[in-house]
Amino acid sequence: MSTYFGQTTTPLGDVYVTENQYGVTSIRFSEAPPLDLRIDGGLQTDILSQIRAYFGGSRHIIEVPFQLEGPPFYRRVYEAVRRIPYGEARSYGEIALICGRPGAARAVGSAMSHCRLPLIIPCHRVIGAGRRLGGYSSSRMKRFLLDLEGTDYVRD
């Protein structure tokens, strides 16, 4: 199976994309290229231009073929998160309920922490109860993306 790599720069630093013939397999934000990544400009999709357009404000959804990985519950979570509209947010508990697992907010958080496709799966749109970020979810990246989208949340 062939693997393709690409890189672009965003306000959050460099983004490294990996894809195979079936679609995007990972998106990584990093200050330095991951050790296992060869940049060869061979991406088969226009994901890099879509990422630049998203950060430029002219695109609200990244639409490219991609491969979801993980257990069935994680996949349900990722599909539910993909349906959150640009500029809106849902709580971990709301996503758990949508996925048929009320009370599984922590499991939703676990799925978010294992997601390899940020921006395609807009994990930043999942926030805590009471519209608070808190804990791990208060990362600079999450705040930046929510602010970029004009999302209402409690700024601690």
Question: How big a fraction of the residues is strand?
Answer: 15-25%
Q: Largest sheet at a glance?
A: 3 strands, antiparallel
Helix content: 25-40%
Straight-line N-to-C gap: 46 Å
Instruction: Compute the average pLDDT.
Output: 88
Query: What is the count of DSSP helices, taking H or I runs of 4+ residues?
Result: 5
Category by helix and strand content: alpha+beta
Identify low-pLDDT runs. Answer: none
| Overall number of strands | 5
Radius of gyration: 15 Å
Strand arrangement in the largest pleated sheet: 1-2-3
Instruction: List SSEs in N-to-C order.
Output: EEEHHEHHEH
- The gross shape turns out to be globular
Explain briefly what this protein structure is.
The chain has 156 residues and is of the alpha+beta class. It is built from 5 helices and 5 strands, in the order βββααβααβα. The strands form 2 sheets. A 3-stranded antiparallel β-sheet has the order 1-2-3, covered by helices on one side.
Question: Your description of this structure?
Answer:
With 156 residues, the protein is α+β, with helices and mostly antiparallel strands. Helix content is 30%, strand content 18%. The protein has a three-stranded antiparallel β-sheet with strand order 1-2-3, covered by helices on one side. It has a two-stranded parallel sheet with strand order 4-5. It starts with a strand and ends in a 7-residue tail after the last helix. The mean pLDDT is 88.
